[in-house]
Each structure stands twice: as C-alpha cells, then as structure tokens.
Amino acid sequence: MNKMRNNNRNSIKKINSEQTTIISAFKPFILFFMIVIVAIIPIVALNLSVVDIVSAQEQQPQQISKEKENNESVTLENNKNTIKDNKKGVFHTLTSISSSLESDDFSLSQNNKTSNNSMHKIEMIVVTLPTGQPAYKMISHVKSINSSSSSDISSDSNNIDLTPKYSKLATIPGPTLVFNEGDYVNVNIKDKDGNLINSEEFLASQPGTFLYIDDSKNGENGLFGAVIVNPKDNVNTGLIKGKIQEFPLNKLDKDIIMFMVGSTFWGMEIDNKNDYKQSPLWTNPTLTGVVDQKIRFHILGVGHAGNPTDHQHTFHLHAHRWVDPGTTNIIDVKQILPGKTHSFIIDVGDGVGPGHWQYHCHVFAHMEAGMMGAFNVVSGDPAINIPSESGASPYKNFAAFELTDQPAKWFTNLAGDITNTGTESLAVINKSGSVNFMMSDVSGVHTVTSFVYPKGAMNMPFDEITAYAGGGLVKLDYPGLYVFGCKLHPFMLGGVIADDPSTKGLDLGDEITLINGVTVPTSSDLATRLLKAFFTFTATNNWQDYTSSSSSAASVSSSSPTSPWHISYPDVDVRITNGTVVNLKDTLESRYGQNLTLDELNNPDISGVGEVWIDTQFEKTASKSKPGTASAVNATVWEITKKVALPEINMNNAHNMWTDKDQNLIYATQWFDNKTSIFDRNTGKLVKNIEVGHDPSHVMTSTKTDELMVALHGEQGVALLGPKGESLKKVIPMQFPGQDPSHPHGHWMSDRYMVTPDEFTGTATIYDMMENEILGKVKTGHSPIAIGMTPNGSKSYVADFFDSTISVLDTDKATLIKKINLLENYDPISGNVSGPIGFLPIQTPVSPDGQYMVTANTGSGTITIIDTEKDELVKDLPCSAGCHGVNFGAKKNGGYYAYVSSSFSNDLVIVDGDPNNDGDPSDAEIAGRISLVGSPETQVDDNVTALPGTGGMGVLPIPIIYNGWVQNLPEEWKSLLTEEQQNPIVQ
User: Which among 448, 501, 463, 450 is positioned nearest to 479, based on CA atoms?
Assistant: First the structure.
C-alpha cells in the first residue's frame, strides 16, 4: 500500500512538472479547500474576434463602426456552423478600416502606395503558458521597403529582420506591432503544432493605437495585443513644459503599453533608445521614467464589448497631466471602454520632479480588486532609459483562474486538474506568489472573496465590495490554504495553497480563518469538513448519483440500485496544526468514510397534490452552451413528466420559480444572467424572456396584484414586473440612499410585507408594500441568503449562511427577536454531535399552517426542523450533497410535504413534517426519495446530454398553498385541497 502510494505521488510529481513549470517548482501535488474552476482553452479551436478601435492620435477621435456582439441570439450561439461563419480575425478592425482594400482580395495596387510604403510579413504562434493561459509569441517579423505584395519579400537587401526586437517568450500582452501610416501588413498566426489558424492582410491606413484580440474569450485570458500606426508626419501633440505643442515621435524615450483587463493591468514597454526592443511588464508593473523624458502611453481596454458597463475603466495617473487627443483639454483621467484605446505623451516629472506616483483605475471596486501600480520618477540622465520593473508573471509563481457559468468549473484553474481527482479548481504556488482571477466566461456578475485564509495572512481578507464582471489580482505572502468564492453564488469555489517549499508537506497552515471571522485549527473537524465539501462541490465525478450509471438518463424505479458514493481526494501529504504532516486522502476517508451506500429511492405512501417543479440547474442539454432545466414531477405517481431547457434563449442556470394566480405560467430566474424567462406550464413553450437586471435569484408574486417581484442578487433591489411579466415597471431599492448595495437573494412576502436577505450587508430589509417604503433594516448574521415567514407575516426567519444561524425577526417592529444556532450541538474541533445540526443553511420556508420550519443545510447535508412556537431546533433529517432548496406542497387528504432539492445530487427528498397531524414537528420524517432523472416518456424540448437531474435548487409545488396565494386559486385547483389546506392557520 505504501509503495503504491509512493508510486502515485511520483506520478503526480511527473505530471505536474510536465504540465507547468510553476507547479514543478513547488511540491509534488496540491490540495485545496474550495476554489476555482478549470477550463483548459482549446488553442487549436481559437476564435479570433473583432473589437472596436478608436484612434487616439487624430485631431478628431473617430469611432470605427463595429459588429455588435449578439448576446441575445441563442441561434448564433448554438449553431456551430453559423458561429464559424461569424468569426472575426484578430486584426479584423484594422482590415475593416483599410477602405481601399477588399477584405477577401488583398491585391496591392501601386497607385495606392507612396514611395515610403513598406511591407511587413509577420508570423506568430499561440503558446500555452505554465499557468494554462494562452499567449502570443513572435516567430518572425520581416519588413520589406517598397514591396508591392507579400510575395515580394525575399532575402534581398531591402529586407529588415525585426524579430530580435521582440521578446523570445510568449507574452501577455502579445507583441506590440508598430507600423507607419501606409504600410502593408500580412500576419499569419499558427498553433503550437504549426497549423495555420488565422491569416490576415491589411493596409495600415489610419494612424492610431489599435487592439487585436482573440474572439472566443474577448482576449481576456491572454490573447490580446496592440498595433501602433505612426502618422506620416511622425508627429503627435503633447503637453511639453506645460504647453500644448507638436512633438516628433523619433524623440520619444519610451512607449508604454498598458491593457486594462478585468481588474488587472498587463503591460509592455518599448525602449526607443535601445533599438526599440520590447519587454513584457506583465501584471501591475512599477513603471519608471527619468525627469524630462518623454514617454508615450497607450491605454487599451480589453473585455466584453457587448457589456461595457462591467468592463469600463477610468485610467488615472497621479502628478501628471496630458492632452486629450483631438482637443485642447488637459486631463489626468480618461474613461476606457472595451475595445477603446487612448494614447498620450507625458513630460516626465514636469512640475513635480522625482517621486513615487500611482496609476490605477478610478472605479473604486476595480482598484480595490488590484487594478493599480506605481510610476517611479527618478533623477538622472534623460538620455539613458531605466527599465521599468515588471510585475507578477505567469512564468513564475503564478496561478490563473477563469470564472465560468459551467457546473463545478465555476473557478477554473487554467492549468487543469493538478490533483487527478476531477477538480479543476485548485492551484498550488509558493508563498509570495500571485493569483489572477478573470471573469472571461460569465454572463452575470460575481465577486472574488476569500472564504478561508491562514490566520494572520497579509492582504486578507480579500473581498470585493460589489459584484461585477471583472476579476482581481491577489498576492499571497503567507503559507497556507486560501479558498476564494463568489458571495452571490457561494458554491463557486477556488482554492490555492501557498506553500513553503522548505517544509515537508503542502502547507495548510496551523489555523484558518473563515469569512465570518471564526478561526479553527486545520486539524479540526470543521476544517476537514470544509475540505470534503470543496472536493465534492468542484468535481462532478464526486456528486451523488441515484441511478445505476452516471451517464444514464433512463428512469429509475424505487428498487433500482445506486452506485456507492465515492469522493476522490488527493493522495498527498499536507502540513497542518503544529507542523504535523498527514496524508490528506487517508485523513478524510478515515473521518468520513468512502464508497458510502446511498439511501434507496422510494415513493411516499401517500400521494402529493398537483406537480412539483425543480430547477435542475446543472443539467446540460444538446442545443445549449449554458446549463439548466426545469423538471416537473407528477406528485400523484411521482414521475418526471417534463424537462424544459428553453434552448431558443439558451436559458442560463435556472435557479428559482413561481407561478401566476391561475397556475398556468412558470416564472424562472436565470441566476447567472440578467433575465427571467416565462413559459407555459402545460406545454413548456416559451412565452417571454425579459431582462430584469443582474443575477436575478428568487421570484414571487404579490398576493393582491399578481405582480412579479424578482430579487436582483447582483444589484441592490427588487425588480417589479406587471402581472404575467408584461413589463418591467421599476426596481425597488432595498437600502436607504447612501447605504451599501444590499444584493438581496431569497426574499419572502406576505399580504403587506416583503422581506429581503441582504447578503453583502448582513441585514434583512423589511419593505412595507402598502406604504411603498422601507419599514426598517435589521442586523442579522453573516451572508443572509433566504427568508421564511409565518402565514400572517408577523415573524420572519433569516438563514445566515456563513454563521449557520437563523435570525428570528419581528416583522411588524423590524427588530431581532433571537438567533437560533444550528451548530449548538456540534463541537467544531472534535466533530462530536450531540443533537440535530445544520451547517451552511439556505432555503428555510415555514409550513403553510405555521407550525414548523424546514431548512436545507448545504454544508452538513441535513434538513433541520424548527418548532416555530418555541423557535427551537427539534430535529434533523439526512439530506443529499449540497442540500439547497425547500418548498411546501399539499399532501393528499390533508397536511403538507416539504420538497427538498440538492445541488450535487439528482434526487428529491420528500419530508413529512408532521406525519400524525398533532402539531408537534419533532416526529418529522422522510416520506420518500425520488430520482430527478427523466425517462424516455419525459416530455423534453432539448435532449439531456450530461449531469442528468443534478443541480436541484429552486422548488415550486403547484398549486401554491401558502396563505394569501391559496385563497386566489382557481376552483379546479382548490377542489383538490382539504378545507384546512384552503384556509391555513394564521398565527
């Protein structure tokens, strides 16, 4: 056994050393807690896209027309042939502004040339860096003077080899290509195997600075660079000695090219005094200039051109001013939109002398996320250039994560699965390394937040105060385990181990601090439970499968066997509390077991009423690039009848549902997008797809007006839509003016009140819908995520996710009554459990009769029952991996079922909270467990291809039987209910 383990470790070392030079410099393997999702970029299949280009050099800045990115069209997104036809070249924009040339017929007419025209023949390749990021590398750049076509370039005296000017490495940004106005350019780009993936030719007909990028990810992962076209007269305007004047470009000392990407600067420097040699500056470099030097800056925006709001930046340089091109305005800050560029000349140190100045994005959230650097102005001989100091580089002690919408790959280490466990969300670097987060494959907004970090670590906690589609750059100086996540979507996890190479075992640190400030030893049960959760959440092969085969989409009867639940853990030694070295795999398996037998599927003995709809948020289908379906269960026979994927709109991570008063329409929020879809419950046909705002999470209707209330989790309020979603009327703010954005998630409503859990501010907002105003805000626990409410609305219950508490509120008075500690019976050090527990609670509705509350706990995999008369925890029941959603439906002939869904499983648990109808919930029991995998008879609008039945989140039983809604049901639904169900007890 020991020999096998040693062989495995040696294999891991070998794989890591071949895969990335960074990991090979560390210890053989990596272990992490909750982290990033991997998405290895298929270089061979690069799509190189168009970006708008603005000339910053001309008197009147011109905005060149661009092809608008069509985010709405699923047809284009899903039809591979159409996508291929709509790919744009890397240099497409430059081609498009070469008006004298046909894009598909590059014949250079001698009449179009002047005597000083040159022809440039360039070859670059795409290389994968040690971090997994793609980058451009210059192979050759040959300039031929007075050539009429690319075929004229030969080894004669007119050819100049410019290749030595470029870095010998593949770089981010890619090589900066410098031409003169009127030059002709031919660029071939190949993959690492020499296959041609792009070929373009264009006339450099317009002076300015232009962006070239890869289309598939808008360049954000590394495939971007700059083209500088110098004007024929070789002169630009600058602020020199305090005056606006023309300045000859051949007297420039440096060109500094800075790209604003996500929340990081990437740079390149051209030394004009040293044969124009280029040096990559990498991330957030320290720029250097000598007093009285003249430096030309080029600032370029990289990002989703179709969503400029979340990718716009404002570049600001301290102590220096410059001329805004095309004007006589003297500025020190400039807005930079995706695809736009801004170039200017500064007179170094003019009026301020030597100093240490800052440059940064003036958007505070971006600067806070790491978008800043230094500009050192020094005394010296201006005839001698001093190289700038490069920042963190993908070649040394660096990890790169891409945030995506894809299941388990939410935080993707671009270097891949370095653990051989299935997770692509873990990285290992040496201490004093850097981690770059890029939101390059997301449709919504997110944060990068440190959920776990070593006690006493510098620069921690790292927390973005607002959600946006940006990213971040974090330096980790202290050895230990770091887990990052998104506060909006807390199952999105990415882990980094900052290792001290001088110690044995990968360093997890002595103690870890959690996001709520709690500190525990890494040897504790709580710490290892979190590690177990991390490897479960971030690898689909570690999810629970209640079918006999994970690839099967067939129906499963109550007697069908299920495969044992196996979680793959890294077989690696880790250093924990007091320097103790243990094997991670052995530790986790000894504490929590392995190959566990899952509970059998069985239908409840008593039928339910109507249907149960579940957001199977991670289920993938054939015609969509985004995951998510809505699955319908017939509660009479417990069969899956429909799966609605809505491929025509590429429905993205359907999360929560509600219905209209007639129970005919389904409203489904798209949590990783900005839309709420509406479809017909009976046919599954799309009715409407309406834009409501960033990351809509939960939806309910008004009991009085049937208007929709959609919580905008990525923003600061609740969207109000007309009945049946006819139109977006307004967004109701969930904070007073001047307060931090609330980012509400799972709200609940009564006839009068709407209560929202404000996840970023740790509050609950009580909104009086009768007075149309905020009644009050109540301080809750950390990261409140969902609300439950008694039938008359007098009490509200808030699930405090990271604190594992339930805050009980007096709704009328907007005050806190008490907190229920779901971990009061749990010892976080030893792991001893003396009673019912709940860890990381999410949805927590109150039964329609007001007798008890059911809470889904994603961390402990338990369902907790709280007696609402005593507000005490009375029982827990076993749930499945990632226990998440709960909602109540009617049980036939009286009583209620609580339907409980789980994110990392494909089953639905049916709970009877009061089986003997005595009002005492302490005898609550599991009545049944059914599969959410469809059968050949299931009605579908798109074929399920992967992760069948998984991602259970929002639950919607129909008919709705809560007080205020049940009274408005059509008679056909009311007739299925008992008198007590039609008139629930109001407390």
Answer: 501
Residue 173 preceded by cis peptide, ω within 30: yes
Per the CATH hierarchy, to which homologous superfamily does domain 611-722+740-811+834-982 belong?
YVTN repeat-like/Quinoprotein amine dehydrogenase (2.130.10.10)
100 burial class (0-12, 13-18, 19+ CB within 10 angstroms)?
Answer: exposed
Q: What DSSP string describes 17-62?
A: HHH-HHHHHS-S----SSB-B-----GGG--------B-SSSSS--
Whole-angstrom CA distances from 812 to 778, 817, 868 are 12, 12, 17
What CATH number does the domain located at 1-232 have?
A: 2.60.40.420
**What's the topology of domain 251-392?**
Immunoglobulin-like (2.60.40)
* Tokens, residue 893: 């002939």
Pick from 514, 550, 518: which is nearest to 531 by CA?
514
pLDDT, one tens digit per residue, over 308-328 is: 566 789 999 999 999 999 999
SS3 state of residue 620: strand
Q: What's the Cα-to-Cα distance from 410 to each of 48, 71, 80, 251, 676, rounded to whole Å?
A: 24, 20, 24, 48, 21
- Tell me 746's DSSP state: B
Q: Which residues of 52-84 are buried (b: 16+ CB within 10 A; e: fewer)?
A: bbbbbbeeebeebebeebeeeebeebbeeeebe
Q: Position of tokens 């971090």?
A: 131
Residues of the chain with pLDDT under 70: 1-87, 98-116, 146-157, 305-310, 548-561, 986-987
Which residues, 6 or more positions from 243, have their beta carbon under 8 angstroms from its beta carbon?
Answer: none
Token pair recorded at residue 984: 């629930």
* Residue 10: per-residue pLDDT: 37
Q: Alpha carbon 555 to chain centroid distance?
A: 33
Q: What is the DSSP secondary-structure string of 62-87?
A: -B---PPP-SS-HHHHH-HHHHHHT-
Q: What span, in angstroms and rounded, lies between the C-alpha atoms of 226 and 248? A: 21
**The domain 398-540 belongs to what CATH superfamily?**
Cupredoxins -  blue copper proteins (2.60.40.420)
In 3D, which of 969, 981, 956 has the Cα closest to residue 612?
A: 956
**Phi, psi dihedral angles at 455 (to 5 degrees):** -60, 130
Sign of CA dihedral 802, 808, 809, 815: negative
Whether the CA torsion 414, 420, 422, 427 is positive or negative: it is negative
In the numeric block, which tokens belong to residue 760?
């970023």
Structure tokens at 281: 């500056």
Tens digits of residue pLDDT in 70-122: 333 333 333 333 333 345 789 888 877 764 444 343 333 333 444 468 999 99
User: Maximum CA pair distance of the chain?
Assistant: 99
pLDDT for res 219: 83
- Kind of pairing between the strands at 639-644 and 939-940: parallel
What is 840-890 written as a DSSP string? SB---PBPTTSSEEEEEETTTTEEEEEETTTTEEEEEEE--TTEEEEEEEE
Please indicate whether the domains covering 398-540 and 611-722+740-811+834-982 agree at the CATH topology level: no
Residue with tokens 């239908």: 603
